[in-house]
Design brief:
The chain is α+β, with helices and mostly antiparallel strands and 163 residues long. The protein has one domain: Roll (Pnp Oxidase, Chain A), CATH 2.30.110. The chain contains 4 helices and 7 strands. It has a 7-stranded antiparallel β-sheet. A hairpin with a 5-residue loop joins strand 1 and strand 2. The longest helix is centred in the last third of the chain and has 15 residues.
């Protein structure tokens, strides 16, 4: 059995935006949001370098990476630690991800190189509401979805209107 479970895949899919942490040359952290994170197989995550020159440069120098994916409505997610390998166009992981992103977002999607992360450690991310609030996931998702819309000052119509 691999490192990445079906639940982890589901959380990544529902999160739609994950955060990738790398180490800058001066040792400071670099945190970059990624909408292209997917489970490639049972032991690897993958994301695309679309416009991430700092993330890619950091990973060329130091391949250690952490990716956090959180389902904001269910208030839980996962922290994935591992090492990244840069994958150029033409190689199978790159082409797999590029096609997946084109299918989701349409042609013209920028794709410079893929970053294939060998997952070495996974830890759950769980909101304290599960403990102190005795929350249950099936109750939290609709409550936090409504709260999110309200806190942002949105109406349901705002979510479907184009800007």
């Amino acid at each position: 059995m691999g490192m990445i479970s079906q639940d982890m895949r589901d959380v990544i899919r529902r999160a739609m935006l994950s955060y990738v942490a790398t180490i800058c040359e001066d040792g400071s952290p670099n945190l970059s949001p990624k909408g292209s994170v997917f489970a490639y197989d049972d032991d690897h995550l993958i994301f695309m370098n679309q416009a991430s020159p700092h993330t890619a440069a950091n990973l060329r120098r130091d391949p250690r990476v952490e990716i956090n994916s959180v389902d904001v409505f269910r208030r839980r997610g996962y922290r994935f630690k591992g090492t990244a390998t840069l994958v150029p166009p033409g190689e199978a992981p790159f082409e797999w991800l590029k096609q997946k992103l084109i299918d989701l977002n349409g042609p013209g999607y920028p794709a410079h190189e893929a970053l294939l992360v060998t997952v070495e450690h996974v830890a759950p991310l769980l909101s304290p509401v599960y403990g102190w609030g005795h929350g249950k996931e099936e109750e939290l998702a609709p409550r936090y979805a409504a709260s999110y819309v309200k806190a942002a000052g949105l109406t349901p119509a705002d979510l479907t209107q184009k800007r």
